[in-house]
Amino acid sequence: MLVSTKEMMAKAREGHYAVGQFNINNLEWTKAILLTAEELKSPVILGVSEGAGKYMCGYSTIVGMVNGMLENLKITVPVALHLDHGSYDAAKACIEAGFSSVMFDGSHYPIEENLAKTTELINICNEKGLSLEAEVGAIGGEEDGVVGGGECADPAECKQIADLGVTMLAAGIGNIHGKYPANWPGLRFDVLEAIKNTTGDMPLVLHGGTGIPADMIKRAIDLGVCKINVNTKCQIAFTEATRKYIEEGKDLVGKGFDPRKVLAPGVEAIKATVREKMELFGSVGKA
Ligand SMILES: [Zn+2]
Predict the structure, then answer these.
(1) What is the pTM of this model?
(2) Per-residue b/e over 18-37, b at no fewer than 16 CB within 10 Å?
(3) How far is the CA of 168 from the centre of ligand 1 (A)?
């Protein structure tokens, strides 16, 4: 059964580790992530962007697929199904469809409007026992076609949103989505520390977990990050493995053209990536 992230976040905060959010794109992705989480006895959050939601034929299709896998793969670790960077309407649609967690990204609204809309969604989530992630300060890089610059969140605004009773808070601290440029200056730990000081025990979320060096990840966890989002790294790993299979001509040998064979190396590559991240985040054995 899907669970919210509330208990996962509380345990992560106490235990000084982070739970990975891994975005899904299809059945292979979902299976690879769930099997790895089960094998490593790690809690896990499956992220779904609005774009991926459309790609997978709508939120209820995803809920059906994930619930089916939890049962048929005999998954026992805590699993949350979470909308990533949702609009207000998408958040409502996911709640309706059976997601256990949503992110409302109101970072592009003026703070008053972000506060008002976040409050409405918190009320709905509380009523249904779901978790809600809010965002302050746009996170840079490309988000479903929208390219941002990587601004830093205002700690006072973070406190305003945290005090509404959100489950977890994403705050821009110089992190960006996608591949990091060679001249990236790194995470702003001074900003993270200021946010931690104003928001207290609020579990913080680090987006753009693909290219952040291990030592920065560890320091961010020490400063209150309890959830780290990974998307691009799995995409690159999957595509590299698939390219290798084709370039080596394996699809031309015997029944190598069978899609289940073509996609198998990519699935193994996603599993390896998820394993590496769970080990880095410290969530192994915490389920
Ligand atoms: Zn993000």
Answers:
(1) 0.95
(2) bbbbbbbbeebbbbbbbbbb
(3) 13
